[in-house]
Design goal:
Helix content: over 70%
Oligomer: single chain
Number of strands: 0
Order of helices and strands: HHHHHHHHH
Structural class: mainly alpha
Radius of gyration: 20 Å
Distance between the termini: 77 Å
Number of helices: 9
Length: 195
């Protein structure tokens, strides 16, 4: 009898995970072809054949779906960190290239996720303080003479991230294309003081 319950539990969990993945996949598809306004529970239900109640059981709000999609994006960055010592100047350059590749590799989806942060939705806070801490950790491992902008890692990271955010929000809003965005993000990691 215990084996049967375990089997049922395993099948139930697989079904739950598969349903959750269908919802996430459909949400991703909608954001790749449309805007945040196109992402609705009613639309997801229609396209997946799931009831709205089922969707709400997995994701009480659209914001929860956006959070999962954003976490996946950030996870893909941190799953592929450069394989060189963080003390090398090229580590920062490779990290920046990785971020650019992830963002522009699924441009429409990521633009929508970035815009969601501006609309007050929370996507793990990565675009806020956490990114600054990540960059500060990278910059602090560099020899002070190799640090962009300033020898002070906190100031250096704050300036780079501020510049990055400006480029990112302009890109997300459609003011610049992927290539221009990539150039601006690279520029953020190579800024120098003007005097």
């Amino acid at each position: 009898m215990e084996t049967t319950r375990d089997g049922r539990s395993i099948r139930g969990e697989r079904t739950r995970l598969a349903t959750r993945q269908r919802i996430v996949d459909e949400s991703r598809r909608v954001l790749r072809s449309g805007t945040l306004l196109d992402l609705t529970v009613q639309g997801i239900a229609k396209e997946t054949g799931l009831s709205r109640v089922t969707i709400y059981q997995h994701f009480p709000t659209i914001q929860d779906i956006l959070s999962v999609l954003s976490s996946e994006t950030i996870g893909s960055i941190f799953a592929h960190l450069p394989e060189i010592a963080p003390t090398e100047r090229s580590y920062l350059e490779e990290f920046v290239s990785l971020v650019i590749d992830v963002f522009t590799g699924d441009s429409q989806l990521i633009r929508n996720l970035v815009l969601a942060t501006e609309m007050g939705n929370s996507i793990t806070g990565w675009f806020k303080a956490d990114l600054e801490q990540v960059i500060e950790n990278i910059v602090s491992q560099l020899d002070p003479s190799l640090r962009p902008v300033s020898t002070d890692p906190a100031l250096s990271s704050r300036i780079m991230v501020t510049y990055f955010r400006g480029a990112m929000y302009g890109w997300a809003a459609g003011f610049v294309d992927d290539e221009t965005f990539a150039g601006e993000v690279r520029r953020a990691s190579t800024l120098t003081t003007t005097g």
